[in-house]
User: Which sequence fits this backbone?
């Protein structure tokens, strides 16, 4: 792959002039810190219903924002007109907002220091999806959808692809000037079968994760789309005929295609320091993993090693520098089953007594203020751990879980409930057909404490999502989670039909 | 710098169009917000934005195709129109193709007037009142968290069929969360508003203080089915999920909870034993919403061909019976059923109900009183089984009095199933959906009683 720079069309915007105008004005007004972001976010969504294009929507969000710390208080203002005069106006407005707020503020904002950085960073992809003609993209999605729709038992197919190109310029009063570009893509295919007579319907979706790659994700063969699309109709037919699960406690082998989301909810969000300190208390919630447990809280079994990073190739949270000019890093969050780290931004780093932010500030649009958002939080495989067959082979009676579907967790990240795309009975160390109506429910530390085996590097996969929500006003962030398959003992399994009172 | 007005952008786009049809719209938006935690403001902001959207319709011979392109700011209109026409040419014929709407809906608005705006000044009276509430909480040893937001969007829609429509949409919300300093007790109050003039911080703070008082006594209860009184906010979050699932096409195709076994949909089926009515009305007092459709991308529940279509008041459930489902014009034609558009508000009513939430608590011998629901997700689309948590106040009611605060629960319930089990509904009032207020704030709901709400497991969260 060619090393590349940010697109010329973005660099041609008056970035330096906007930065000088806004930052000079902010300093003149007495700000102890000011930063300017210029962002252009291109988003395209193609949606197909039964192999026909239902919608093709192409959006571009271009704007700028000024954030200041003025006499210890935040101020923020955002606009869409890219002129020096507007940048000055936004700096003045941000200071005015800080002044209005000052009377109601008791905590003084202090930022952990970060050395100045200057440079460009572009994510790892080959083919910019916005350079591929729409007709080609639609044709590929249509052909694959038709293939699914033609299969025995498939009555409907819902499919689509969303891709994003995000370009950012960041400048602050410490001298940092960075420009970045990243690309991500999320293709999805769902087959649905309907039994007209009984009114029963059932679906199955591809487990291919969204990734920080370009259009080549669909074409270069590194992900075997053909194989996955070919097996879905048969798997769906089997699912409709599968027996309903017996609720109770079961040993679970959880595939990385499902486990990534459990990590996201029960470890990722729980180890955000702003949550643990109460800054999300009224909305996203707090965390059971409070700072007094740092270095001592038993999060899970000794096999549990979780890292945070903003550096993994193709990771959705991967960057060069965050939205406060902090360089991308990698660090431990849980080591040998014990809580050892948090995800922070520059303000919460200071509150947590840390010398430096680990670079988790992110704003999802030029209109929004950066907040602490999730790094790629990943469960590390065991170097000498078993492969998938080895993990399943170690289970006498249990359930193997594949693919994510429904998810829900409480506001302190204790009690969760997940479903999946498919569940298999394990008998005598072998898969013995699918089960229906399965959900697993647990408390975070019980679940991770029950982890008895962690798969080896051969089972490690990157999962993820585009739409992680947090903060008010609401922001969405893309994030990946790597993990191996793993074995959990004695997890509570619900029968969802019985839960519905039937 | 000269800045083109929204109306000029719409006219330029329509004039530049070489397609067989064109819809252009501009959304001017301003927003201000305040956020606070532990009796201190945290983040804040004042935002201004403008989105320009062009939908082109091109007949490639086999049928009409469409493409949508959106940009922020003041984009090059010619480029935007060309891009959307290219997108339409690249797309195959649309399944939802019908002639564009040409009849102007009632309440088309003042096309020529400037956009309505808000600013941080909307909080001029709110902010000092909030400061006083912080002070009072501090002196009691309580902590306040929360968020206030006000936005104004003005949408100008023009079509090649001659429509020129404008709608101003004010949207506001306040959430106030009170906690004890150890976070073990947590309660909530919230309201939706159009202009903040009707928001009383003292009332919200008093509600929070009262519930924190109730939580002084803690009672641990196990999972199980409980007689439960749900306040309007909790009802709204459940009913909204049912509303968002009311797609006629999905039902007709046998793939949602409103599908009928053997084919067709369940319109005409009794869903509620009580004569409840679930309805939307763009002119509902205090909940006013756009009286016409604005659609950027087609789906099973909306069509770009229906841009500008009137969205009159509609009953989804009338006297307990499913009456309407959301149906774009194309699907209506295909199924010889009426076209019905979704409206951005939702009201549930029981005729002649007068009981307040307090009255219903007073009439409860032993049961649970909830405050809000949280993290609601679909578990089984067949029954619309949802899961979620109780949040910020589960109270034990004994002998008509609140006697303490109970641990939180994870619940598994279907709103459609619940409709059939509601044994009492009170007086409808404006409420703020706790779970969904990022997307939906205009709701009015009654408190309801459910004899056997399914609390699936205990959540240790507070």
Assistant:
């Amino acid at each position: 792959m060619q090393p590349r720079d940010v697109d010329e069309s973005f660099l041609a915007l008056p970035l330096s002039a906007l930065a000088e105008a806004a930052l000079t004005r902010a300093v003149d007004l007495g700000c102890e810190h000011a930063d300017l972001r210029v962002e252009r976010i291109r988003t395209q969504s193609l949606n197909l219903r039964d192999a026909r294009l239902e919608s093709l929507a192409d959006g571009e969000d271009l704007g700028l924002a000024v954030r200041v710390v003025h006499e210890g208080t935040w101020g923020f203002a955002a606009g869409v007109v890219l002129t020096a005069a507007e940048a000055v106006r936004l700096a003045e407005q941000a200071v005015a907002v800080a002044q209005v707020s000052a009377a109601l503020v008791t905590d003084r904002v202090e930022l952990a220091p970060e050395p100045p950085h200057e440079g460009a960073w572009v994510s790892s992809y080959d083919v910019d999806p916005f350079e591929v003609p729409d007709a080609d993209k639609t044709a590929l999605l249509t052909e694959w959808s038709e293939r699914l729709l033609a299969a025995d038992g498939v009555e409907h197919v819902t499919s689509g692809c969303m891709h994003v190109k995000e370009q950012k310029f960041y400048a602050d009063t410490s001298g940092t000037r960075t420009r970045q570009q990243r690309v991500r893509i999320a293709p999805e295919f769902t087959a649905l079968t309907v039994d007209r007579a009984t009114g029963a319907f059932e679906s199955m979706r591809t487990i291919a994760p969204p990734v920080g790659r370009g259009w080549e994700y669909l074409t270069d063969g590194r992900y075997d789309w053909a194989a996955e699309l070919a097996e879905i109709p048969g798997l769906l037919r089997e699912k409709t005929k599968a027996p309903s699960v017996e609720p109770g406690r079961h040993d679970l082998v959880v595939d990385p295609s499902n486990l990534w989301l459990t990590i996201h909810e029960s470890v990722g969000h729980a180890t955000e320091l702003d949550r643990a300190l109460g800054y999300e208390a009224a909305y996203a919630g707090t965390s059971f993993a409070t700072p007094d447990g740092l270095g001592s809280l038993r999060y899970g079994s000794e096999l549990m090693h979780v890292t945070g990073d903003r550096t993994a190739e193709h990771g959705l949270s991967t960057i060069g520098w965050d939205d406060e000019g902090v360089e991308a890093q990698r660090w431990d969050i849980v080591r040998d089953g014990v809580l050892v780290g948090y995800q922070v931004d520059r303000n919460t780093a200071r509150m947590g007594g840390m010398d430096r932010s680990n670079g988790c500030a992110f704003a999802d649009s030029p209109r929004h203020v950066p907040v602490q958002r999730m790094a790629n939080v990943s469960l590390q495989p065991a170097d000498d751990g078993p492969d998938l067959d080895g993990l399943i082979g170690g289970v006498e009676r249990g359930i193997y879980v594949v693919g994510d579907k429904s998810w829900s967790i409480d506001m302190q990240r204790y009690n969760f409930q997940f479903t999946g795309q498919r569940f298999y009975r394990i008998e005598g160390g072998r898969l013995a057909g699918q089960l229906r109506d399965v959900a697993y429910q647990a408390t975070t530390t019980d679940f991770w404490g029950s982890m008895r085996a962690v798969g080896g590097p051969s089972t490690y996969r990157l999962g993820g999502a585009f739409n992680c929500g947090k903060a008010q006003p609401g922001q969405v962030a893309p994030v990946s989670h790597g993990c191996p398959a793993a074995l959990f003992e004695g997890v509570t399994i619900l029968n969802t039909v019985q839960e519905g009172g039937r | 710098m000269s800045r083109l007005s929204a109306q000029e952008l719409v006219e330029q786009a329509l004039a530049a169009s070489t397609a067989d049809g064109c819809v252009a719209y501009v959304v001017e938006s301003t927003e201000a917000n305040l956020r606070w935690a532990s009796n201190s403001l945290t983040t804040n902001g004042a935002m201004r934005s403008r989105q320009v959207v062009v939908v082109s319709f091109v007949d490639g011979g086999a049928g009409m195709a469409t493409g949508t392109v959106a940009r922020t700011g003041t984009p090059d209109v010619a480029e935007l129109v060309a891009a959307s026409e290219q997108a339409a040419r690249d797309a195959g014929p649309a399944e939802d193709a019908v002639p564009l709407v040409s009849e102007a809906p009632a309440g088309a608005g003042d096309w020529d007037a400037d956009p309505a705006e808000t600013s941080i000044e909307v909080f001029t009276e709110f902010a000092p009142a909030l400061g006083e509430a912080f002070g009072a909480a501090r002196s009691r040893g309580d902590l306040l968290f929360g968020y206030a937001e006000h936005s104004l969007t003005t949408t100008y829609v023009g079509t090649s069929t001659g429509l020129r429509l404008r709608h101003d949409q004010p949207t506001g919300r306040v959430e106030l969360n009170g906690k004890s300093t150890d976070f073990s007790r947590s309660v909530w109050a919230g309201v939706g508003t159009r202009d903040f003039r009707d928001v009383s911080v003292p009332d919200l703070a008093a509600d929070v203080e009262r519930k924190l008082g109730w939580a002084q006594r803690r009672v641990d209860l196990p999972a199980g089915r409980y007689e439960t009184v749900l306040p309007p906010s909790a009802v709204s979050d459940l009913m909204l999920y049912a509303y968002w699932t009311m797609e006629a096409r999905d039902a007709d195709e046998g793939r949602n909870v409103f599908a009928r076994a053997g084919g067709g949909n369940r319109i005409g089926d009794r869903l509620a034993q009580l004569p409840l009515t679930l309805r939307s009305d763009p002119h509902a007092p205090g909940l006013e919403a756009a009286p016409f459709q604005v659609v950027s991308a087609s789906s099973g529940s909306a069509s770009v061909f229906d841009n500008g279509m009137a969205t009159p008041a509609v009953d989804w459930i009338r006297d307990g019976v499913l009456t309407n489902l959301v149906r774009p014009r194309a699907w209506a034609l295909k199924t010889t059923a009426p076209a019905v558009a979704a409206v951005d508000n939702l009201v549930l009513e029981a005729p002649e109900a007068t009981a307040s939430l307090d009255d219903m608590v007073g009439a409860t011998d032993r049961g649970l009183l909830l405050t809000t629901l949280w993290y609601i997700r679909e578990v089984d689309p067949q029954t619309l089984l949802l899961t979620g948590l109780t949040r910020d106040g589960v109270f034990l009611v004994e002998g008509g009095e609140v006697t303490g605060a109970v641990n939180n629960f994870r619940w598994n319930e279907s709103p459609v199933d619940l409709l059939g089990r509601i044994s009492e509904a009170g007086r409808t009032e404006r409420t703020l959906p706790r779970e969904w207020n990022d997307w939906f704030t205009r709701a009015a709901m009654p408190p309801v009683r459910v004899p056997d709400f399914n609390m699936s497991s205990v959540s240790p969260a507070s």
About this structure: Chain B has a mean pLDDT of 96.
